[in-house]
Specification:
single chain; OB fold (Dihydrolipoamide Acetyltransferase, E2P); 17 strands; five-stranded parallel beta sheet
Length: 236
């Protein structure tokens, strides 16, 4: 369980590291002390778990989550109990009050393990979405999603990039990601889902990112975090 500790207090980070040594399946891959650094480390390290403080320089732990395109599992670690309700509204798995006790940390980590076991069945529908009804002006038709090279987020809608048309689908990109075939579609960034069958070329981009060129001419820059996941996925 690759874990990133986010806390602006050095002693708090050191205590978490000490407590985590009791769990062989936990690997601390890094630390961050403020919002910008936390977002950068998540993108670069792709942790499975964030142990996330709430009050820190540059904003709050909630600001970190709002900026991440695909947040990892989160356990809040804080000295303040008044944020608990909001923490669970953003799908935190647990809320630990400082000073953190070993039994409570163990309980929180077990929640993370159970979430990991449950995720594949929950995230992948038994029958992936294959067709979608779209409308472009006066024209309406069914689209075979396997023939869509690129989907782009536009608020609560998704723009489908087809040969000769770019209709809007009244579904969010997050909704579609959960229902499309994960063997074919890959979340390249907060804004884009790409169809791997249409990838024509890959080039290195700035800061460890990848630039994807699709058949049809579209180019998409993967985020750093998703570029790392893509490399891991494509490595035999």
């Amino acid at each position: 369980m690759r874990t990133l500790i986010v806390d602006d207090e050095r002693l708090a980070r050191a205590e978490l590291r000490r407590l985590l040594t009791a769990f062989p399946d936990v690997e601390v891959v890094g630390e961050a002390t403020h919002v910008d650094e936390a977002c950068e480390r998540v993108e670069a390290l792709a942790p499975d778990l964030l142990l996330l403080d709430i009050q820190m320089p540059g904003g709050t732990g909630f600001d970190v989550l709002a900026r991440l395109e695909s947040p990892p599992d989160v356990v809040f670690t804080t000295a303040y109990d008044e944020h608990a309700v909001r923490a669970f509204e953003v799908n935190a798995l647990d809320y630990l009050l400082k000073p953190i006790e070993a039994p409570r940390l163990a309980e929180a980590l077990e929640r993370v393990r159970q979430r990991g076991l449950a995720r594949p069945a929950a995230a992948t529908p038994s029958t992936p979405l294959e067709r979608a009804f779209v409308r472009d002006g006066e024209r309406c038709w069914l689209v075979q999603l396997a023939q869509v090279p690129l989907l782009a987020s536009e608020g609560n809608y998704a723009r489908l990039y087809l040969d000769g048309a770019q209709p809007l689908l009244a579904r969010s990109l997050n909704y579609l990601e959960e229902r499309l075939d994960p063997a074919r579609f890959f979340r390249a960034s907060r804004q884009h889902l790409i169809n791997l069958d249409f990838v024509e070329a890959l080039e290195p981009g700035p800061g460890g990112t990848l630039i994807v060129r699709l058949r049809g001419g579209q180019e998409v820059e993967m985020s750093r975090r998703q570029s790392l996941r893509f490399r891991e996925r494509m490595t035999p």
